[in-house]
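Ticket reopened. Same input as before:
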Amino acid sequence: MIEFDHVTRTYGAKTAVADLSLAIPRGELFALLGPNGAGKTTTIKMLVGLLQPSRGAVRVSGFDIVRDPRDAHLHIGYVPDEPCLYDKLTGREFLWFIADMFGMPRHLAADRIAAEIEHFELAEFADDLAESYSLGMKQRLVFASSLLHSPDVLVLDEPMVGLDPRSVRIVKDLLAARTREGMTVFMSTHTLAMAEEMADRVGIMVRGQLRFLGTVAELREQMAIESTSLEQLYLELTSSRAGRRPEEP
Amino acid sequence: MTPPFALSGVDAVPEGHVGTCCRLPGVDEEAGVFFRLRAKVAWALCQTMFMTARLRLSLVVILSAMFWGSLFGIFVEAFTFLEALHAEVISLLFNAFFSSLMVMLVFSTGILLYGGMYCSPEARLLMTLPAREEAVFSHKFQEAMWFSSWGFVLLGSPMLVAYGVVRDSPWTYFVLLLPFMLAFVVIPATVGGICCMAMVAWLPKLRLHALSIALGAACVGAVWLAWTTLSTVRADSMSAAWFEQTFSRLAITEQKLFPSWWLSSGLIEAARSGANTSERLAALAEAVKFLALLIANGMLLQLVAGWLARRAYRLGFSQLSAEVPARRRRRIGWFDQMLVNAGPASGRPLRLLIVKDLRLFRRDISQWSQFVIFFGLLGLYFSNVRSFNYNNAYASMIGFLNLAVVGLILSTFTTRFVFPMISLEGRRFWILGLLPVHRDHIVWSKFLFSFLGGLFPCCGLVLLSDLMLGLSRQAILVHEICCVVLCMGLSGIAVGLGARMPDLREASPAKIASGFGGTLSLVISSLFIMVVVVAAALPTQLSLVSSALGTGGLGGILAWVGDGPGVMISLCFIVAVGLGATFLPLWLGLRSFRRLEP
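Engineering reply: fixed in the latest deploy. New output:
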């Protein structure tokens, strides 16, 4: 569903992502971890078409994001770390705008909008202007908008920022349900507990390189550490020994 | 080569449920979606403005109407004069006006599109949706064109309506005015958009340099034209020779390939009231031909821009996103250090706060560049006022008008930049709130920063104006005292009201300034300037009237009022008003700021 094919992205002399090759199949929830400046956001920006790779290709549902951006976007739902809404639109109007941009038939859009408003408990403020929303309300609305067209791939950049515990639970349940139905989730996060709890596989990036790819169990095995928490494994992998070459899973 | 982390059995063929519920919308459908978006946003904006900013809305409408009416009156007078004496120069004036406007529209739309298409959160959202690049361009273009050209409508319409009225033009001229203006603005605006997209996509490294060079060249050209026009013929300004020389310089704008020439020619043809129907129809046909030329070129450029957007927009967006801002190490300047160490230790917190604001001002290009542009233009104008060889009465009046202009420019700065300072400080209150600094120091530091920052350039400009006008020492002294009072009062009003009516939720200083408090600050500042300047000008003007009336009767009374005692009374009044305008808002602001709970 998602393919990074030898993708490199440079910022001037600095290499933000180096020769990333990664494939994520249908129905998988993948969590990308890494310290600040590791290249996670660059990877996500390339995946959603905000940034073009310097080398290599990114494909979503078989569509190259640079060559066929519109076809690829039809299959992507994106929740950025900083939610962007139109201040002078209400939540409901924003959802309609997104539905129209995805060419959804009116009757279907109306059903989906009603369903997402219920899922994310937006009804109370759906008809208020977005300028009056808190960060958590905005984030819930963006979640709703990203799922409106039932995308094949959902890309989440730090998805839980600003959400209250109840909303976090809603999102977790929803992600679990959608991945069971076949949706692929690509998530960047610093919340290791969430990655450990939800991800089928995790990838750990350090200085633009994918240091590890696999399940948490595989990581434990590879690191040959008795410890049980992902946090300890993560710290071990990203600390002083992080300068090693990427290892094959 | 097989990717090292590739899984066997990854879906090669798209397989999902997207196809069942969405599809790529057609061109018209997409345009409709964006149209509805703009309509809804505009409607919500109008509603919000009507509900929450009635004072600002009323002021904008009333002042715009007054401005329009005044311009209309001036243009009627001007065209009547020209129609009687120099009808042939109207075409030249139109060409000069429209061609300079054309250049400004290219730059302003280009810059607005750069912000809207590449740097705005909305652009980031749209780039992740299945929207056509040309549709996004068109959406942002319409927004940018509106923002860059509304001034043209406000400035151009009274001029063109006045021209039609003076020439007794047929009704078709007035009907064609708006289509002509709209068709014209599309051309430079689209050129600005094309240049913007091309520079971002293909000249990423040269973008800043290219823009700076182009802007610099345009500014140098404008300054050269103004300077040579005003300075070369000082001795016989306003004479026939001066006009001839000036018009020969402006003839450069009469190029038949310029859209400005098509516009001016079309308008002149449309305004022609022929002797009979066939002449009128011929003139109308000629005007419509020029309108068609403008529309056709505008549409062609739109096609080019759409084609370019498909090829260059995503590329440019990506390149711009990949740019890493250069790290700039800042050191504490000697001036800052000197300011911090000057004076007793008890005043150090206050001085530290002033230095902090000074640093923020220096490092914010949008603040100091506007300051430099406006005061620079005033300086350019003041250094040329001597060219017009005014007599004493005029020179005195112009001196006071210049003082008012300096005050008005300063009031826009205090409203735009000083008024929001307390609100912005409120957002960072957790920093200042934890420091051992008295809250009053924060307010006083803003006041001193604004007062001292405005004092030197304003007094310098007023001095320049007075010296160029050849005013007496006494008049210069009066103007300088007024200028100090204006700087003090305007700073007091902006800081005091800013502390009295802070908007702690808003992060944008522009939005804070355009709210109720900012508008009120601007209105009170304008009234204060008016009171000070009128009070200062009154004795001088009475003295001039008395010299015309003679020494007996009313003339004698006016002479006494306009002489020493009158000047002293007016100065005392001005100082009293200035102290009131400074300390009353500051007192209100301090009282409110002490109780502020962020």
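The longest helix of chain B spans residues 277-321. Chain B touches chain A through 50 residues (CB under 8 Å). Please confirm and we'll close it.
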